[in-house]
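Q: I have 359 residues here and want to know how they pack in 3D. Can you give me a structure?
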Amino acid sequence: MTHIDELASLGTSTWLDDLSRDRITSGNLQEIIDTKSVVGVTTNPSIFAAAMSKGNAYDEQIAALKETGAAVDEAVYAMTIDDVRDACDILLPVYEATGGQDGRVSIEVDPRISADRAATISQARQLWSRVDRPNVMIKIPATAESIPAITDALAEGISVNVTLIFSVARYREVIAAYRTGVQKAAEAGLDVSRIHSVASFFVSRLDVEIDRRLEEIGTEEALALRGKAGVANARRAYAVFREIGAKDLPEGANLQRPLWASTGVKNPNYPATLYVTELAGPDTVNTMPEPTIDAVLEQGGLHGDALTGTADEAQQVFEQLVAAGIDLDDVFEVLEREGVEKFVASWSDLLDSMAAQLQ
């Protein structure tokens, strides 16, 4: 039994936060499913930008798309959809064995439309239809403008990975959007047991931003709080999940599990497994870059359920952050804006690169 298996026994599913055609065609994805107990995959614009910028795995398809005169956006989505579809096929046995809980592969809507509800739901429908696999999840960012689109998608039976959640306040809106969406799906006669969702709560980016501000403040009290905000914030979110996550769901509906994202540590002074060992617990997912998965396998460090009963201690950390001079509302606003901007930048770079290759 590996440490990833031990993590699963605590209630946390391990998903890989990466995908490329090389992983698929070389058999690497199947290998890490078999040997590292990975049970899902998440992608984002940055991941695909990295995958398509190196090697020659996409050359043949790019040449074919060039022959057809495909537009740049269409070419990029054709390739990402093919990768996600193939990954879904590889993970289908996991999906079937877990009743749809795991075996999931996520693909994200264009980050440039995150402020447009109509465009977001339109593209969510297109991606859902074109991937055409029961275990795909459509990633929609939790911006204020996209929250209604999350409800729209769920109401139509589309499984959704709600991404870029930073604050507990926004997370409450996400829970409400999920509840309303599956209620509407049930009222429309859809089988809600087939609708799944995760709420992707970003962890390490919070520590990066708050640590920077704590260092600017520079007091002993402030510096002592470095590296504590990310875990505390996720634990506060977990307490909300336990409080209202199952409330008023229609019969047969699934829990929208919290998913811990951005769990590769950015500060080399922190343990590589920090955002895994300290966020292990029932009904959760942790999507990790492969180096973090390997660190867990090698180092372990798990110490049981690290989530249940931690709300008071986590709240104390946030009270101490406020007392030290941290403007939390500003932190969350900055992180959400920058999160969208970073994905837009990656997507734009990918489109520019693809445009050059299609000429």
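Q: Anything worth noting?
A: The chain has one domain: 3-203+254-303+336-352. The longest strand covers residues 136-141.
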